[in-house]
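Kindly go through the entry underneath: sequence plus fold tokens. Please state briefly how this chain folds according to its tokens.
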Amino acid sequence: MTVQHNIALAEGLERHLGDPHDPATLLSFQRILRYDELEEFPHELVGELQRQAVHEYCLPAEWGGRAGDVETGFLLLRLVARRDPTTASALMLTDLAFMPTWIGGSDDQRTRFVSMINNGAKMAWGLSERHHGSDVLSNDMRAEKTDGGYLLTGEKWLIGVATLADVVTVHARTGARGGPGDWSVFAVEKRLCPAGSVREVPNERLHGLRALDLSGIQLDGVFVPDSHRIGAEGQGLELVLKSAQVARTTISGIALGAADTALRVTCDFIVAREIFGQKVAQIPYTRRQMAESFADLLLAEAVATGGVRGLQACPEQAGIFSAIVKYFVPTSLERTLSQLSLVLGARLYLREHPHYGIFQKMLRDILVSVFADGNTVVNLKSVGAQLETILTRGATATPEQRSAAEAKVALMYDIDAKLDAWVPAQQQLFCRDGDLVLLALPAAIEKLRALAAAREGDQRAWFQRSADLADLLLGEVDRLAADQRDLQQRLGRAYGPSAELYRLAEQYCALHAAAAIIHLTVNSGAVLADPFPDGAVLLLCLERVWRTFHPTGTCTDVAEIDHVTEVLLRLHDERKLFSHWQIQVQASGEAGTDE
């Protein structure tokens, strides 16, 4: 779909949902906070989004949904999450639970479950277990073959909407050894099971997403027919890992939505609040804090954009892209919200404030995007395991390979470029050809210099300085590769689990983020509406990465910070999404000065 089509779809949803600060709207912050305080599942909010067919943009059109491009459903999820991450999570959990069927199910299974979802059914993804967490190869749930099907026994715990779900997609052991080929996936349709045979594990009380059903199920010899096994016997681990790639990429939309609201209400505060004879928005330290938070959000968006579009443009890269997105976006935006809380001050603690009460909920809720579907450690481990291959292939790439990478990356980051149909089964578990985003960086820097030459005045200087800083960051890739080789040689067998490798993985993710924002700038510049692309904004984004390697280093001064702050406040004043996407959102500032 084109940029304009996605913007029109997004703005239509925004207009329908209305201003979240207006108590009269269904998805108002007031109503959302009430559900949160009562820890009550938001059935009416989810129901309204179902009536608007939001969930259908994450279900395959071929079997009854509306999904064409991944980014359409991702964008809608982000807009829901800026109102309520709980409702967004509740909605996406069903689509996530369907993903193994989309990847490995039969046409009949796909059609059947999409039809059920479109008629209101909820699905849960029964993967994690109480004693094993992310170590899915140690799970205890087993499926014993019997005539016509399987007998499932075991417990699944901390499963979203497990109690409310009509169908639970379950990962279970079908082989004796528990190796990679000894797992399968089954659809446990509750209404086809004897009454009481699917026992609910009590809902857990949560720190964030308090209104979500996060519970579990217990099975004791529950019969599941052969027709409800998803994919081949022994295909379970593949289905789990490919489904996780999608979940890890798209869940970043929840973090982006939460960060947008946190930044927006903080902007409301600084433009309304006066202290010591001046508006808070005029205090230099506040301006830097706000400008950096804005840059963090745009940087995270660039990483997510590449990851989401990459699922279609280059599914062979899903193994590395999804891990980087899942580590970088939630982790960096969690820090951003902590930084914003310093600006907002005491209002952070006011749970029932009519305007700022939503901030503390976003601060709590964003954490789900950090730990769900693979936590920070799991994703850094995945990046670390692929680091040697990525860096080696990057250093030895031929001109032809770099040219091919540049073409694919241009497709990923030109947000108006048409993508091939999404076939999630084509996603690869591990990256074997190097990270295309870093491979194509040298060419992108040259495009950035051409962009600078075409501009005048401050913009020319800022884009030129951005290109110079990008060259320095490119040098960090060579340094990182040398450090990786040295570490592997020194530690031998201790290399894989070493803390030092995890640190190198963190640094690599930051370099990928820098490359992502440059690619987005040079490949989508023609379709981005004013004020983007902007040289000062890009320079500050790259400075945020530079400080990963040089914590006390700065590349911007007062002029750049003032300019970026004015870009932020312009978007705030015009009620635009804090994004490269120029989407009109429904929002209102605080009514009057809050003394």
The chain has a mean pLDDT of 95. Residues 528 and 581 are 7 Å apart (CA to CA). Strands lie at 123-126, 142-146, 149-160, 167-173, 183-189, 198-201, 214-225, 229-230, 274-275, 278-279. The first strand starts at residue 123 and ends at 126.
